[in-house]
Amino acid sequence: MNGKDFFSRQHKLDTPSGRISYVEYGKGPVALFVHGVLLNSYLWRHQLTRLGEVRRCIAVDLLAHGDTEVAAEQDVSVTANAHALAQFLDALGVDKVDLVGNDSGGGICQIFAALYPQRIRTLVLTNCDTHDNWPPEPFKPFVSMVAAGGLSGTLQAMLADKAIYRSPQALGPAYEHPEAVSDDTIETYLRPFLRSPERLHDIERFINAFDNRHTIEIEDRLKRVQAPTLIAWATDDIYFDVKWSHWLADAIPGTQKRIEFDAARIFFPEERPDEFNRELEAHWSANAPA
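Now predict its structure.
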C-alpha cells in the first residue's frame, strides 16, 4: 500500500490543541497507534489494514507531524502531545483504547498512561524513549543539527536523494533492511515538513523540546499503571537498548509479557508486521473487553 492509498482513509478532527489528522480501519473497540519523530500515521499501515477485523484501528499524526495542523503558539512537546491524545479521544467520543506506541510515540504513550490511566484498556510499548534516555545518545547529533538550524537542508537532501535517508548517517540504522524502504515511504514521511515554513518550524519546535524531564516527571504515576501491558522490543536497536524493555517491564505493574524480536530494529512494526500483529492480537484477545 502506498501513501496515497493509505491516506484516502484520512480524517480530520478539531481539538483544543489543533486539527488532528488520523486514519482508521475496522470496527470494534478502538486501538490507538502513536508514531515517533519524523514519521506519521503511515508507520502503522500494516497494523491498520490487517487488524481491522478485531479492532477499530486508528493511527494519528502527532502535533507537528503529517497532516495535523497546529497554531503557531501551540505547545508541541511530548507532554502536550499526550494531552492532545486525550483531547482527540474526547472529540471522537471514545472512552478507553488499546494504546500502542513506538519511538518517541512510545514515550508519549508512557506519559499518557501515567496521566490518563483510566483511559487505557491495554498498553503496548515497542522500542521507545524511556526514563532518562531521551533523546538517546545516537540521536543527539541530529538534535544538535536541528538546534543549529540545519533541518530544512537535511530534509531537502534526503528527499532529493533517497539514498541519504537510507544511509548509516541518517535513518538507515532504524531499519533492518534500509535498502527496502521505498521512495514513496520516504516521501510520505518527510514531504509534509517542507510544505510551508510554519510546518518546518513546528517540527523544529518538537525536536528542540526533547528533554528527559517529560518521562522522569511521570515515573511515580507510571509505576502505578495497572493496564495489561505488553513490552515488545527489537534487539538490534542502536537507539533503545534491550535494557530499556526490562526497565519498563519492571516499572509498570500491569506488565504481562516482555518479548524480543531478534535482530530487528526500531521500525520493526513496519518491517515485521506479521510477527508483531500476531502478538498484538494475542494480547488484545487475552484482555478482551467484558
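The CA atoms of residues 31 and 98 lie 4 Å apart.
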